[in-house]
Specification:
The chain has 260 residues and is of the alpha+beta class. The protein contains 6 helices and 13 strands. Helix 2 (102-113) crosses helix 4.
Length: 260
Amino acid sequence: CGGKKAAKKPVELPDEALTSDPDIGSKEPVQTPHLFEELDTSTEIVPPVQVDAPDFRIGLGALFPDFECRTTDGTFSFHSFLERQSHYGWTMLFSHPKDFTPVCTTELAACSSLAEEFQRRSVQLIGLSCDSIDQHKGWTKDILATKNVDPETTDEEELGFPLIADETREIASMLGMLDPLEICNVDRIAMPARAVFLIGPDKRNRLTILYPATTGRNFSEVLRVIDSLHITNCGPEVGTPADWHFGEDVMPATNVVEDS
């Protein structure tokens, strides 16, 4: 078996990196193993599609814009949906990158399971994903299955809230919800991030949480913030400390000035 070993050549080595193999008996130089392969620069790297910043960014306290919603519960304006809650209710709008994806399915199942908790806090839900209404309705079956709901043995066929169809991503772009780091493999367009907007009875944005497309949301945290907002709305001098939960002590807010 003498002779030269078959050389693995991920990169060229300098002469000093060559050595003899004592087991072979040949004094022919052979290459020592490599820990790292040379970066292949022969293939052109395609950069992600650049997403223009939307004209309308929604900050805290901003009046939410009105727009047409084509949903699983019919077509209506967003403001008319907000007004269903009268003068006391709140609305949570939350977006999803794509139907039938595993993370999104678990999130919709979680929201459907927590529907009564949101209703108890006077919060109605409306979701958004960049697929068609028919796809949304087909996706509902998967979501209910994730909740361990058998459509053959129960009357539950709906999520308990509508889903907006935003195939063109027009709404997601207007609201600043696109994630430039998550690009669709089909059309090379940025996908919606996992955004949460909590909108007050005055149609103003009171909470924004933005998750990357790869990370599922913690809706227990959303409920915790809703509880805090309900209490702090009753008295602007009241604040809630870190990790606060309903029933625990509150504290003075930062804008309270001590009497001299």
